[in-house]
Amino acid sequence: MNEAQIDLAHAVALGLIDDEDHHAIQTIIDTEDPTLCTEFRRELHRTREALALFASATPTAPPPGLRERLLAAVAAEHPPTPS
Fold it and tell me: Where is the Anti-sigma-K factor RskA N-terminal domain (predicted)?
């Protein structure tokens, strides 16, 4: 599978397809290359599993002081310039 086909599988999993995508998907499914169709379906399945895992994750609060440490690190890399 090429990068465009992988991106298409991700778009299908996210439900973000349009008419042009429908045509591309049908082309992959109807292909004479069974490996391509299998790889596309596998990528779609993996993406849906990953999305389900993210959806079921329980958010946790960041550790205390994380925001201040991040802001300090950014400021150290890019000190403010006087106006």
Answer: 6-52
